[in-house]
Structures are given as structure tokens and as C-alpha cells.
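<purpose> Linking amino acid order to shape
<body> The protein record starts here
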Amino acid sequence: MINFAVVNPQTLPRSYSTSHVNNLSRVEDYKELVRAASCRRIMRDINLDLNFVMQQQIRQQMSSRKLVMKRSCSVGMARIDC
């Protein structure tokens, strides 16, 4: 058996509403929040992808520089007596 309590509407706070328009507004607000969160996530994923690509390019440049490095030369010093 289900028991439904009867509530006096005058005891409810002003923020409590059962109007259809207000419920639609809440649904639209929720949809907007979901859209915003989705956009933030997409932007974060794009930034992560760009950072990954940039790191790969930097690593490739660093490895190519290692192959092109010049050899070092040794220099000897001695004392000259006259």
C-alpha cells in the first residue's frame, strides 16, 4: 500500500515549484550544463592531443640533432724550450 502525504502548499518555500514552465527551464539549464561540460572535455582532449604531437616533434628534432653533432677534437699543449 502506498501512502501519499498531503502537504499544505502555503508551508512550502517559495523556491519550490511544480509549474511546467519551471520544469522546462530546469531541463534547458541541465542541457546547457551538459553542453558546456562536453565542450570543455573536447577542448581538453584537443589540447592533450596537441601537446602529445608537439612532444613527439620535439623528440624527433632532438634525435635528429644527435645524429648531426660534430666530433670533438683534442688539442695538446707542450712547453717549448729555446
